[in-house]
Amino acid sequence: MATQAPAKPAQAQRSWLMKLLSHRGVQLTLFLWIVGHGLIIMLTNGALPFDRPAFAEIPFPLQMLAPSVMMLEIFVLMGLGYMLTRNRPVIDVAARAPERSQALRETLGLVAYAIFGQALGWVLGPLLGFQPFSFHLAGTLVGGHSGLAVAEVWSWAIYNFGFYAVIPYLWFRSRYSAVQLNLVSTNRRNDLLVIAVIAISESLFELTTLGTSLNRLSFSQLALGLPLSLVIYGLGTVLPTMILIYSILIPRFLKITGSAITTVLLGGLSYGVVHLAEGWTNFSTPTNGLLSVMFVLINYFGAGVIKTVLTLRTGNAWVHALGYHTIAPHVIIDTPHIVKIFGIR
Description:
Blueprint: H1 9-21, H2 24-44, H3 60-85, H4 100-127, H5 150-173, H6 188-209, H7 219-257, H8 260-273, H9 286-314, H10 317-342
């Protein structure tokens, strides 16, 4: 009986692409991506109702185009991640989650917990005289809010770190091992290579395409501001994101759906959802609220996708945290923001 010849590289690539494009989740995502952009254009009349000073001088068409350009760059990073990990054994991330019914209960419980945390942060921040607590400090990535009090910065960081990182970690760590939570490397050398390549690639992309005033800072401002930004954003957004989504939810998404593609899409969606209370969003009217939800999801979906891909390929949530979060974007883009708030000279 004749054996089937192995697929050639070009045929394998076409087969992979067809599988991706034929996936209903991908088709739905493409449809919603197009419809979302169309609705934003129809509802804004060429002016976005958001407090984003860093984008104030950028023409509306370019602001609308930016998320799609970012997605193209995300696809490049996904290719790099795959190429760098192609010789590694496939890691069964789903096996790190409990059986399906238990995984579903834990997922629903954690999602409800995160929603409560978002609602609490939305109320608690203003009660303390601060901006609502989201996964990003007010002014992060978009400029503005340089007059925030130092107390607000630390309150935001401590709240996020405690609510989204410490409590979920302690609860799940008492029931699951560090390996099951994607917190242990199975190949340190390769993980470090992936971190370095992704971090350098993303840093170069941001330095050449996004606005940053790092070059305007003095040596003393850089010497103090860089490590301070690393600590503040590490506590306030990097570790909460890593624990809540990529350590705990991603293995459960994969166990429940049985599909890596669906898991990647859910990872992107989850990352967008936890940023709905951003300091620049505008919920003053139903229309502005709808625009805020759509724009947040469109702008953060790609970042969530690449974080999920890196986690699935390496089985190590630290890879995305260090390769695509800690340095780029927060240290590169947000150090000037921290320097202004803390009055570093």
